[in-house]
Specification:
Elements lengths: L12 H10 L11 H13 L5 E5 L2 H12 L4 E6 L3 H4 L4 H5 L4 E5 L8 H9 L10 E8 L10 H13 L3 E6 L2 H8 L3 H4 L7 E5 L9 E5 L8 H7 L8 H11 L3 H21 L5 E2 L7 E7 H9 L5 E2 L9 E7 L6 H12 L1
Parallel strand pairs: 2-3, 2-4, 4-5, 5-6
Antiparallel strand pairs: 1-7, 6-7, 8-9, 9-11, 10-11
Length: about 350
Amino acid sequence: MDFTSDNAAGAAPEILEAVARANSGTAASYGADAVTARLVRRLSEVFERDVAVFPVVTGTAANALALATLTPPHGAVMCHELAHVHVDECGAPEMFSGGAKLVPLSGSAAKIDPAALAAALASLPAGIVHHVQPAVLTVTQSTELGAVYTSEELGALVDVARGRGLRVHMDGARFANALVALGCSPAEATWKAGVDIMSFGATKNGALAAEAVIVFDPELVRDLAFRRKRAGHLLSKMRFLSAQLEAYIEDGLWLRLAAHANEMAIRLGAGLSAVPDAALHFEPQANELFVRLPNTTIARLKAGGARFHPWPMPGDDAQARTVRLVTSFQSQPSEIDAFLVLAAG
């Protein structure tokens, strides 16, 4: 009953097997290998257009490199106030960009409110030397509170951003989970909706350690390769990263793994809805749930071996607190049911 994070899950067998296959023989270094070339072709097929692909080891590297590519040192990155790039990356986007400013915005369920974006842009007029200049909008799909932007919601934000000439970045650490929830194609969820560049996550959904910066606009490719090298994220044995990502997308594995994680979250959410004094903050859309539970229930769950993180939210008090529950491709119905039995008391 480990619901601390999808990072706590292991690696999918198909991905482990792919790494083992890539270990046979020798291969050109620094991404000049056949596996990486194949990965670029496969991702271009998945996204229905030619893309540039830059595999890296961590999501922080993917986000920071992508944003640095879009933002000058005097620029501003418009993000949600709960965005991972703002809260959980120890200033990496600011460092990689040479000092760009992150501007946090409000919005329910960690989705940026278009009105908040418009107001923030209006407060930073173009050409005024005393103000940072807005350069990029970054959205997280799915969000830090487990919500998913609909195509209409994303389109409304892109319209505001484009009106000021901003580029658009997507943090897709849980992109597969969002895509399953949306039921649309990868192309429709990204570049067709106005996304210029994305951080494509696989580690939370079955990879050992593999992410990628995927670039949809060829104009943005010019210096990203140099930024990656300078940042220390160009792996000499790149084939082992590329092998993970290739196996991840092969035959829809990534979507099957994400669909299972989402199904487990829905099962958990439905069960918690019937638990006395349990209050879900949002109906689960992807694979994260946030539920307020009485302290006595939390203590009973922990005593029974359940693992999860506290997640303070508005409305918490001395008697009840919010916890975050994250399901993964490894979560089993038996774990969900055991957790629910404990929660019900």
